[in-house]
Amino acid sequence: MNPSNTAFKDEIHKLAEDAFHRHLISGYGDGEYADKYQIVYQGKPRHLSLKNAYAFLANLLKRARSVRAGDR
Question: DSSP per residue over the chain, as a string?
Fold first, then answer.
């Protein structure tokens, strides 16, 4: 894995940790392949490309923040 992929995967991991601690996902981690990331969402493991994992987590967190902001 090249350094830029490593940095990107680290960013995905940070997003996944945030989503996990907000109870938006129930698990996360490296996928079986270097270019995949696993996210457990609604009880189902999903093996996503790094690009799709980033987009999924970013959107999930964005929606959660907008819902929380609406509760104020």
Answer: --HHHHHHHHHHHHHHHHHHHTTS-SEEEE-SSTTEEEEEETTEEEEEEHHHHHHHHHHHHHHHHHHHHHT-
Note the pLDDT of residue 51.
96
Cα 51 to chain centroid distance, Å, stands at 10
Interatomic CA distance for residues 69 and 36, integer angstroms:
32
**Segments making up each domain of the chain, as ranges:** 3-63
User: Mean pLDDT across the stretch 32-61?
Assistant: 95
What's the whole-model pTM score?
A: 0.88
